[in-house]
């Protein structure tokens, strides 16, 4: 199994925007959920009293190959091209992504 984790830090009160963007269910499964090798997705919001909020989007894949196929798929690339050149929203403090092999 292979896991992709996106980490986003946003200003106070804005984690719901990220949750909606990455977790919203529309009519039927998303393009991501239809990808061969996709297992599931979890969205975690760090418990904080005040200040910046942290959101993790964890996507589990059957294999690294399945994840790579999604990353280079026309659908995934088109989604990124649609936002190319647009400034990131002001409420995003930082973002990043890491990938992991599940060993146990």
From TrEMBL:
MF (Gene Ontology): monooxygenase activity
Domain ABM, chain residue ranges per copy: 2-102
Keyword Ion transport: no
Key words of the record: Monooxygenase, Oxidoreductase
Entry keyword Oxidoreductase: yes
Official protein name in the record: Antibiotic biosynthesis monooxygenase
